[in-house]
Amino acid sequence: MGSFWRARSCFTGRSVLAALIVASLAAGSASAQTTPTGPQTGKPQSPETAPAAAPPAQIPGVVNQGPTRELKLGPDTWFRFAVQIQAWAQAHQDRRTAPGTNDGSYGYDFFCRRCRFFTTGSVVKNVFFNFLFEAGNVGKADPVTGAKNPPTPQVLDAYGQVKFADAFWVSAGSILLPLTRNGTQPTTTYLSLDNANVDTSPILQGNTNVIRDLGVQANGFFLDNHLEYRLGVFQGSRQPANGTAQTAGHNGPRVVASLMLDFWDPEVGYVNGGHYYGTKKVLGLMGNWDYQSFRKDAPGLPAPTAPTANQPAGQDKDAYMGFSAAAFINYPLSGAPSKTGGDEIAATLQVGYYNGGFATNAAGVTTNQGTYPNVLKQMNYLAEAAYYNHAGHFSVFGKYEKRALSDDNILPLRQSAAIGNVTWIAGGLKYYLAPANLMNLALQYERTIVDDAPAAQQGGFNTVTLAWQTILY
Fold first, then answer.
1. pTM, two decimal places
2. Which residues pair with residue 450 across a beta bridge?
3. CA–CA separation, 301 vs 279, rounded Å?
């Protein structure tokens, strides 16, 4: 980079700007190939609080490269761009439910699990933004028709953020809901192949956009960044109108809160956790709380036992509530974190309780339609661990998950593979073609067990996935 800056006097006018932009992007790409990175959609940081690196001398009036490869247009105006591709090849076994049949054969899929382009940046001092485009599951076949999922882009993260003080930041827009520890991890640093299946429990009502929702969130840091809180109000579900007496949406917002305590190194990103590849030493706890309530004087949403019609006004609708707690660790085997990375053991233990308010009697007749009738009363469990070998460029991982419905739910609901009692057991390995999470190959085997499947039905099925991941950030 030094020779580049010395050569700048050779260029004038528009050629200076063009050359500097090209060189900045090239330098960012080259640096990305040699430096381990942390979470990939981290909270926008101003350059003065970004990870330390000796920046080159700044040239007034032209685009400069900042200390974390951002493009700086001014002292407090900068942009950082990213591209993420996760290409999957998957063999998934059918689950036969007809009596007297053998286990199902395998179907095959080739698709882009996540095709993303996103950018973070700063507008003026302490004013930031984050914008993420994604075309998800591109090319994945419909399980019935075989039609391929089109490459339709959608906006996921799209918010502005203001820092008033370390203890008080405010964000508004489309924001990742802090519902679980695993659900707020970067999609490029998962210990296993993907996010946990049980992360979908609090969003089974179908009222979020890939775990995002529109709303306003406050967050802040205490104890030298070791304690973080998040508190947000979001759209959630909007209750239907009560005939001509009112319009839709008279119910209150969805309220989501989380509290995270790090005992060793702090985590200050928009997303946290997963692998740190030996660059952080983390031990912590996280708690999450989630709530929304419908009014009695307006209709409710379709329930699992009556999915074709909304429940009428005048019936009880108990509130939806969700709780999650997690303990997690990232331990560098050298005993101390290293800027250049190192061997690491990482693990997460997570438990959750969810109750959408829906209830029936023993005969299956609805006694309370609840606010989120598709989120049945249940407990969720997740245990995952991984070992990352820095010199060998590989990691191995294992994962156990369980969704356990309350016995208050009738047997047909507990027997459902979609929303009933299910156990997942998975394991695999990754090989890193570039440092950290910049490019890797992953192979995962997963066994899905429908715990209460009738004796005449296939009790479990297999899924094998080969994945290629690339990210430049």
1. 0.85
2. 422
3. 47
Q: Closest Cα partner for 261 from 231, 289, 290, 221? A: 221
Highest mean pLDDT (candidates 13-22, 297-306, 437-446): 437-446
Amino acid code (one letter) for 272: N
Angle 101-420-310 from CA coordinates, rounded to 5°: 115
3-class SS string, 109-168? EEEEEEEEEEEEEECCCCEEEEEEEEEEEECCECCCCCCECCCCCEEEEEEEEEEEECCE
Render 290-351 in DSSP notation, one character per residue. EEE---TTS--PPBTTBTTSPPPTTS--PPEEEEEEEEEEEEETTSS--TT---EEEEEEEE
| Number of neighbours of residue 128 by Cβ within 10 angstroms | 23
CA distances from 295 to 241, 253, 309, 367, 369 (A): 11, 12, 18, 16, 12
109: which 2 tokens? 């899929």
How far, in Å, CA of 328 to CA of 181, rounded? 9
**Rounded CA separation 358/365 (Å):** 11
Record the tokens describing residue 297, joined without a space: 């004087």
Cα–Cα distance, 368 to 76 (Å, whole number): 53
Structure token digits, residue 396: 């191995």
Tell which residue, 85, 78, 83, 84, has the closest CA to residue 24. 78
Structure tokens at 142: 């419909």
Question: What pLDDT, in 10s, does the model give residues 158-174?
Answer: 999 999 999 999 999 99
CA 303, 307, 308: angle at the middle one, nearest 5?
135
Cβ(415)–Cβ(422) below 8 Å: no
Residue 114 is which amino acid?
R
C-alpha distances out from residue 201 to 256, 308, 404, 419, Å: 15, 22, 11, 9
Q: Are 342 and 334 in contact (CB under 8 A)?
A: yes
- pLDDT greater than 60 at residue 88: yes
Task: Map residue 219 onto helix, strand or coil.
Answer: strand
| Whether residue 398 has pLDDT greater than 90 | yes
- The contacts of residue 449 (CB under 8 Å, 6+ apart) are 422, 423, 424, 425, 459, 460
Q: Using CA atoms, how far apart are residues 116 and 471, in angstroms rounded to an integer?
A: 9
348 touches 326 (CB < 8 A): yes
- Which of 389, 393, 398 is closest to 347 using CA atoms? 398
> Whats the size of the chain, residue-wise?
473
